[in-house]
UniProtKB/TrEMBL annotation:
InterPro entries referenced in this protein's UniProt entry, alphabetically: IDLSRF-like_peptide (IPR053103), LDL_receptor-like_sf (IPR036055), LDLR_class-A_CS (IPR023415), LDrepeatLR_classA_rpt (IPR002172)
Alphabetized Gene3D superfamilies for the sequence: 2.40.128.620
Protein name stated in the entry: Prohormone 4
Keywords for the protein's UniProt record, in alphabetical order: Disulfide bond
Organism: Schistosoma rodhaini
PANTHER family: PROHORMONE-4
Length: 183
């Protein structure tokens, strides 16, 4: 009995372009070279999403810890909406625009991401993280971090070593100014 498949692509090239009858191997997806006629295999949002955790996993996590995460860190929206924005937004600035974060929410999200980046569980407990959330938070949000989510923070090298006043100055002069015009 033949098994029904979702597309007509062979198993050796399972990824379908939007153009009918053009199939690619996974190695050609988001490799920097367009292979589909409409260049869908290099779509920026899809390539960002490829590096991120599954939207369903993020939505489940956000739902479980909604009282902590929404709106303080992620802004307003359903867990599904916020998860989609986290998966598709290339940088924290892009997410802030998409989720319409205010300055405080943006700062809180960056603090959360910095805590995940450094692996400092205690920093996140000080931000109100519930007991039992660390392992899943780290697993999901570290993948978001390593995919370049904080790349637009790089002008502030050694951000963790800045004192509080320097960090506040950085927020005013760099990040929030980039995002502010879109809010």
């Amino acid at each position: 009995m033949a098994v029904e498949r979702g597309n007509d692509c062979p198993e050796s090239q399972p990824w379908p372009c939007r153009t009918p009858r053009i199939c690619l191997s996974f190695d050609f997806i988001c490799d920097g070279e367009p292979d589909c006629p409409d260049e869908y295999d290099e779509d920026p949002e899809m390539c960002t999403a490829k590096l991120r955790p599954a939207q369903e996993h993020l939505a489940g996590f956000i739902h479980r810890y909604q009282n902590w995460l929404v709106p303080k860190f992620l802004g307003y929206g359903t867990p599904e909406e916020l998860a989609a924005k986290l998966v598709e937004s290339k940088t924290v600035s892009d997410y802030a625009r998409a989720a319409k974060l205010n300055e405080t929410q943006l700062k809180n999200l960056i603090k959360l991401m910095e805590g995940v980046k450094s692996g400092k569980e205690m920093e996140l407990f000080l931000l109100g993280m519930p007991l039992g959330a660390w392992s899943e938070l780290y697993t999901l949000f570290h993948r978001i971090y390593i995919s370049g989510f904080l790349d637009n923070l790089e002008p502030a090298e050694n951000f963790q070593s800045l004192n509080r006043q320097q960090k506040e100055e950085f927020w005013k002069n760099h990040i929030y100014q980039q995002v502010k015009r879109f809010l």
